[in-house]
Amino acid sequence: MINTAQLLADEAKYCSFGDTVHYVNPPKIFTGCEGSYMYDDAGTPYLDLQMWYSAVNFGYKNKRLEQKMIEQLQALPQVASQYLHPTKIELAKFIAEDAKQKWGSDGRVHFNVGGAQAIEDSLKVVRNASGGKSLMFAFEGGYHGRTLGASSITSSYRYRRRFGHFSDRAQFIPFPYPFRRPKGMTAEEYADSIVREFARKFENEYHAVWDPKTQQCEYAAFYIEPIQGTGGYVIPPANFYTGLKKVLDDHGVLLVVDEIQMGFWRTGKLWSVENFGIKPDVLVFAKALTNGLNALSGLWAREELINPTIFPPGSTHSTFASNPLGTALGLEVMKMTHEMDFGRQVCESGAYFLEGLKDLQKRHKEIGDVDGMGLALRAEICTEDGFTPNKALLDKMVDIGLEGGLEYRGQQRGLVLDVGGYYKNVITFAPSLMISRSEIDEAMVLLDQLLTRAKAA
Q: N or C: which terminal CB in the chain sees fewer CB atoms within 10 Å?
C-alpha cells in the first residue's frame, strides 16, 4: 500500500503544476496497468477508455512490444545521435515506402522525441521550403501542442496568453462541426460553405493573403488534424477535405497533416487522412508509434521539401531523437499491425462500440450526439434538450468514474474518461485497439451507471 496522503502533500510542495492538469481533486494516483485497465493501490480495476490520449493504442503491457524493448535494452539501449543504428533506418524506410505506395511521392522521415517537438520541426521544414514564410493557416478547435511554435498554430488563446505577443499566430479557419452546423444546411452543404469562404481569401489582393500579380500567398502551409482530437473528436463531412485541398494546391499552400493523436490505426487506417482521399505534403506523428513505452516522434515530408540539399544536416537536432529503444519499438509496431488486416479489426470493434453508444443515447436524452470513425468515438453530453452543452454533468461523470466505486458483475470498478470539445462537454473515447467485445459491453454498463449516478448527484 502507498501513502497517498503523503504523496499528494509532496506533490503539492515539490512538483511544478505547469507540466500537468489535474482533472479531479484530489488527483488520482495509479500504481499498475494491463491491457485495457489501470489499477489503484487497492487493486481496483479502472477500465481506461482514453489510453493516455491515444498513446497506448495496443494495450498496456503489450507482451510483444515489451519483449522487443527488453531485447533492444540488452543489445543497444543507447547511442549518440550522430551515429547510426539499424532500426532508425529500417523504420524510416517502412514509413517512407508506405507513403510512396499510398500517395505516389518520394519522401524522407525525420525523428524527434515528442509530438510538439515534431510539430516544431515541421514548422522549420515548411518555413524553409517557402523561403522563410512564417505564417500558417490552422483550424478553430485545432490542437498541435504547447511549445511556442506549436502554440502559435493551436487555436486556444489560453496556451499563449502569458507568453508574450505571437506575431506569427496562425489565421484560424472554422472547422465543420456537423452536430452544431447552421440550421437548414446538410453537413455536406455546411462543409462546402466553409471551403467557399476560405477560397474567397484568394479572390483578390484586398482579401489580405494573396498577391494575384506574383501568384504568391503570404501563408506557407495549412495545419490540420483530419479528425479533431482535443477539439472533441469532430469528424468532418467526407467532401470537406477534397474541396479544401484544391484551394491549397491552386495557390501553392502546403498541407501539413497532424496525426499525433489519430495516427497508428485509431480510425481504422494507419493514418486518419487516408479516410479522406487527399495527399499530405508533410505528415507529423508521435504517441502510439511506441505504444507509450518510449518517447519518439517524427515527420514524413515530400522529397523536394526535405532532401539534404534544401534541408541540410543540423537544420534541427535533439539528443534523444531516433533513439534505438524508440525506433526498435516503432518498427515492431509497424510489423505487428501489418501482419494482419488490423484496420478491419479496428473498424469492426469501432462499429460495435458505436452501436453501444447509440443504444445508450436512446436511454439518456442528455447524450446529444454520438459519432465515430474506427475506435475514435465521441459522445456529446448536453442538458435534457439534447443540444445545450452540459460541462457540469460531464465533470461529475469524470469525478465519479475516478472514485472507483462503480460496479460490474458484483465487482468494484472505476472508469477513465477523457474530456474534450469546444465546450468541454464531449467524452472523447480512445480505447485500446485490442479492446474485446466483453470489455466494450462492460464499458456500456459502466457508462450507463455513471450517467445515472451523475444526474442524481
A: N
